[in-house]
Amino acid sequence: xxxxxxxxxxxxxxxxxxxxxxxxxxxxxxxxxxxxxxxxxxxxxxxxxxxxxxxxxxxxxxxxxxxxxxxxxxxxxxxxxxxxxxxxxxxxxxxxxxxxxxxxxxxxxxxxxxxxxxxxxxxxxxxxxxxxxxxxxxxxxxxxxxxxxxxxxxxxxxxxxxxx
Length: 164
What we know:
Largest sheet: 6 strands, antiparallel
Strand order of the largest sheet: 1-2-3-6-5-4
Shape: globular
CATH class: Alpha Beta
Helix content: 10-25%
CATH architecture: 3-Layer(aba) Sandwich
Structural class: alpha+beta
Distance between the termini: 28 Å
Order of helices and strands: HEEEHHEHEE
Number of strands: 6
């Protein structure tokens, strides 16, 4: 959803890696999806319809516009692409698009979520802030005809007015 977020908010998004689990590094022959990470996509500007009170953070920090957890079969990507993914400096969607890798999204399920304490703290900056219901998806993304990504993506939302 990298491109969709950039289009919606009118500005490129940046990646913040919250956590990484790399179980493949500890074994000789990594199993598929042994690399996973929890991420935030931040944007210096926000869509005023989605964030009517404006950005939650200054432009240099960026407001969280998407949360995600993704399992990645690194061994199914070309080595230079896998290495760039592991550096965690650019959004995965942008890396795959710029590499010209054919992607197919399948097994999509849409979700309605009420953020719990962890997600509230990531979206609003404080667990005490109330965040409204938001939406997301789970999906598998094939790259070059093989399943490479299993993901959960959740649209970022601002705290409810008066609940700051």
